[in-house]
Amino acid sequence: MLFKKMLRDMGRHKTQFISIFLMAFLAVFIYAGVGGEWKGLQKSSDSFYRATNLADIWVYGSGFTEEQEKAVSEIEGVVQTERRLDLEASADLENKPRVTLSFVTKNDISSLYLLEGTDFDGNDTDGIWLDKRFSDARGLSVGDSISLSYNGFSFTKTIRGLIDSSEYVYMSGGDGMTPDFYENGYAYLSYQAFPVPEMLTYSTLLIKTDDSGTDWEEAVGKALNGKYSVFLLRENHPSVNMFANEVSQHRMMGDIFPVVFLAIALLTMMTTMTRIVTAQRVQIGTLKALGFKKRSIVAHYLSYGFWLSLAGSVLGAVLGPLSLPHLFYPSMSGFYTLPEWKPAFSLSFLGMAGLVVAACTLVTYIACRNLLRETPAQALRPKAPRAMRHGIIEKSRLWGRLGFNSQWNLRDASRNRVRSLMAVIGVFGCTALLVCAFGMYDGMQDLKDWQYTDINKFESKLTVKEDASEEQISSVKDKVNGELLMEGSVEIRSEKTGKKKIGALTVTDHVTLISPTDFNRNPITLPQGGVSITCKMADSLGVSEGDMISWHVYGEENWVTTKVAALYREPTSQGISLTRECFEELGFSFRPTSILSAQKMTGTYEGIAGILSTADILQSWDDLTEAMMVMVYILILAAAVLSVVVLYNLGLLSFTEMEREMATLKVMGLKTRKLRGLLLTQNLWFSVIGFALGVPGGLWLVQIMVSSSGESFDFPIRLHAANFLLSFAITFGLSVLVNRLFSKKIRKINMVEALKGAE
Amino acid sequence: MRQKRGENPALPTRTKHPGPYERMVIAMKTMIEFQSVTKEYDIGDHVLKAVDNISFSIDEGEFVVILGPSGAGKSTVLNLLGGMDYASSGSIVVNGQDIVGLKDDALTEYRAKNVGFVFQFYNLIPTLTALENIALTKNIVKNPIDAREILSLVGLADHGGQFPAQLSGGEQQRVSIARAVAKNPAVLLCDEPTGALDSDTGAVVLTLLQKMSRERRKTVIIVTHNAVLAETADKVIRIKNGKIREIVLNKNPKSISEVAW
Fold it and tell me: Mutual orientation of helices A672-708 and A614-668 as an angle, nearest 10°?
């Protein structure tokens, strides 16, 4: 019988219960959906790494001998070693795409993953196993030949198979962030296929270790007698790292967003049940009078929270992993390469569902608890108002000067502290989300302008081929009126703190087309002598002007120590910068990697691998921000929904409590408009406080998101005035909207009904 | 003939008023013993005695009216009898059980088995039909009287599927009585049962309650401030300011229809 009552009660408060169901569903749906997605990614990548026996350590040097390999394999904890030659060749195809070749000795560590064709054969001198994404982009298939050239040598191989590689789950695309499978590829060959056997050296040493927490770098360094240039642990491998970052970003989203929905569900549940139990006070007393055990009555009301959240949670846990991952995977597979894209299921999804149900039921219990403590006699009598105490404000002189409106609202707010606090929090949340959304957008715009308008003054950047000759370079330079630039990577170590970091190397040869800026985006000139370092890099290393740093070019062995001459700020990459003279003085040889020109260039030049125009870069940047705009819109929508739901629910609570008083006021003759004004004032107060707190809160949120986006980014967050006003307008607009919803209710107050029953 | 559940087959069904001799026989059994009961409320600076050292006894099958002005304490007495509130001192023995000092669960069980309540404002569950409201009793006692039977008894057999909002005040009160009686309790407690009804409807309700007392031997206690009812009761307890003013026994109580409103 009571079950029927529950169903009919729910039918009466349809909107409320539907929104509770929806929120519970969404909370679990998103948790399980995104969870299924990132867990699936993790599972796929883990099994991929395992199936291909991905290396634990990569060591790069100028040539590893058999003895060196043996020395390393004898280190305690080293399970397997293998030598390999990696080099960058270019393919004899349109646009001369870059193909990274790996000449492999055993194919045991970081082995290829065959998709089509025949298996790897270490004795095959003519065979090449090519990256499938590249071959798809280029229309190549098994059996075709491909010509490659490296350092002046040209050779042709036959494609034996098409592959994936666990070292290229993410393949960076030169200057852009999105991989370009048309311009970049990789391939595996047997070391026996190397075109010039006399010149064969092994650039790479692959190592597999056990789990012991040895300081591998120290041990390996010792075994090699320091004869290596780069030591890379798996966690720092660019592909592994990038993918892991991506997964953890998804994880963060999947863990945080559901909390918001859960909070809304709980809030709505609490207000709805409080309303119901309050309104049904007499019914509860009646049931008690009839002889229902308190336990049964409690169980009855608990069932409202229980069944609803159970239905929503279970549905969410089931539908989430089945649908959400398939939303993400298509765009992910454009960016990353995995042999399998499958969502994963986890018991934690059911755990989350259980948590949601438990929380909803608990909240219901709290809402009902007080009421059920009364004796039946008390429950049948009208509820006594809460004991009144005159607060400090009331006693001050200010009190008399405040209008009726303010007095009423101050009293009401202080009597219902929890409710007032929740209202402020609701507005705070809404504002913070809005500010975060706009802040991200503005930040991206600022970044674009800073890097590509303030700093980069060139129109085209011509990338120099690795094997271009000096004559070719200088002829092109003259033709385009260009400036020479050398870019690379360095590993930097602070002498002061010992911290090490990898960064970008910029060597300028009388370059005017790059205009560095200081911390506050003002243009500065870097000192001619000495090494300058970017602000964020300096921060990470703990150095400042005048400190000493040691660094070496990535891939080369000799380290130099220099003094930090100046700091400059670059928003998209971190590292060091120095002039050609300085560079050569330190004993390095200057090899330009690009030519900058103020003119828009097209066409092909000898010695030039490709041309990047600033216009193109800006275009791809806009494409990137387009994806971000979706995120921004979602955030704004979420903010609006949050604010409306929270304010409405809280308003409902206070409305229910005040219904009697408002009916009395109405009977006495207070106009509906003035009554509305009462509620509006309260709403406005909370909105102002919530907004004031929300703005810094939102900015703080953006900072977190920016710092999670990567080590190479460094830019301050600023909210443009226009967007500030917009967030203000939206926040207050929503407040007013909620108020309108209530004014209808106020008009509808049936004075007679509300005042009846006072015996 | 099908036996009505809960009724003792040994006793003959009554169709006329019991005469003085018969009533003497029945009245041997005391149903309620209210002994020196006090109910106090602590209001800040002083103590309010809603019920001040009240004693009385009520026999099985008696039709009792508790009379008194507003705020006299009559509702409090009723609440105490029903185990809906806790007495500050004294003893209340109902059907052989002292309910003072009982805890919440025990009180609820006492109430479920022994007491049927009828309220001034009916207090039906608005989201249940008339029949379902009565059928609620299935969740409270093991063998309640069949809901349909009781509904016909109060003359509302055709209204079972209607919700309280669709019934008139008098009909709602009759459903409320049906609900109270369905449990087949020994005692029926009625708090101003006709307070919200017009005189004709009220008469119907009161007749029903009197029937319960005379035909089914239920102890019926009605709290009211309408002195006219005094003539219909077997016993009248007048309360004022929380104390008993007088207890009157009617040798020949009138039936409801005989009394002028």
Answer: 150
Per-residue confidence (pLDDT) for residue A407, from 0 to 100:
74
Among A26-40, A260-274, A419-433, A462-476, the range with the most confident prediction by mean pLDDT is A26-40
Query: What are the chain B neighbours of A290 within 8 Å (beta carbons)?
Result: 111-112, 117, 136-137, 140, 179, 183
Strand partners, A157: A146
Query: Which chain B residues are closer than 8 Å to A282 by Cβ?
Result: 121, 123
Please give the pLDDT value at position B93: 92
Whether the per-residue pLDDT at A387 is higher than 60: the answer is no
Domains in chain A: boundaries: 1-61+229-384, 62-228, 405-453+616-759, 483-597
How far is B234 from chain A, CA to nearest CA, in Å?
Answer: 26
From chain B, the residues in CB contact with A375 under 8 A are 84-86
| DSSP type of residue A451 | I
Nearest to A373 by CA among A288, A446, A255, A450: A288
- DSSP H or E stretch at residue A548: strand A548-553
* Domain A483-597, CATH: 2.40.70
Q: Do B84 and A377 touch (CB under 8 A)?
A: yes
- Whole-complex ipTM: 0.71
CATH of domain A1-61+229-384: 1.20.1050
pLDDT digits (tens, 9 = 90+) for A488-531: 888 898 888 888 888 889 999 888 888 999 888 899 888 888 89
Burial B196-227 (b: 16+ CB within 10 A, else e): bbeeebbbbbbebbbbbbbebbbbbbbbbebe
Question: What CA–CA distance (Å, rounded) separates B221 from B204?
Answer: 17
- CA torsion, points B125, B128, B130, B134, in degrees to nearest 10? -70
The answer to whether residue B102 neighbours chain A at the CB level (below 8 Å) is no
Q: How far apart are CA A600 and CA A611, in angstroms?
A: 10
Q: How many CA atoms lie within 13 A of B176 on its CB side?
A: 32
Q: Per the structure block, which two tokens stand in for A555?
A: 């891939």
Residue A394 has pLDDT above 70, yes or no: no
Q: Which residues of chain B have pLDDT under 70?
A: 1-28, 260-261
Per-residue pLDDT band at A329 (split at 50, 70, 90): confident
Distance from CA of B114 to the nearest CA of A (A): 9
What are the φ and ψ backbone dihedral angles of A164, each rounded to 5 degrees?
-115, 160
Cα gap A413→A683, rounded to integer Å = 10
In chain B, which residues have their Cβ closer than 8 Å to the Cβ of A13?
Answer: none
Write down the mean pLDDT value for chain A. 83
Residue A85 to residues A57, A82, A752, Cα–Cα distance (Å): 15, 10, 91
Q: How far apart are CA A570 and CA A517, in angstroms?
A: 7
Q: Which two tokens stand for residue A562?
A: 């220099």
Of B82, B125, B139, the CB nearest to A289: B82
pLDDT reported for residue A391: 58
Contact A291 B141 (CB under 8 A): yes
Q: Does domain B62-85+115-258 have CATH number 3.30.450.40?
A: no
Report the pLDDT averaged over residues A236-264.
Answer: 83
> Does the distance separating the beta carbons of A291 and B183 come in below 8 Å?
yes
Instruction: Indicate the pTM of the whole model.
Output: 0.70
Helix (H, G, I), strand (E, B) or coil at B252: coil
Q: Which residues of B touch A2 (CB under 8 A)?
A: 136, 139
Whole-angstrom Cα distance, residue A254 to residue A344?
A: 14
Neighbours of B86 (CB within 10 A): 17
- Taking the C-alpha atoms of residue A730 and residue A513, their distance in angstroms, rounded to an integer, is 43
Residue A690 has pLDDT above 90, yes or no: no
Domain boundaries, chain B: 62-85+115-258
- Mean pLDDT across the stretch A684-694? 87
Q: How far apart are CA A77 and CA A213, in angstroms?
A: 9
Measured CA to CA, the distance from residue B145 to residue B138 in angstroms comes to 9
The two structure tokens encoding residue B138: 């299935």
Distance from CA of A12 to the nearest CA of B (A): 9
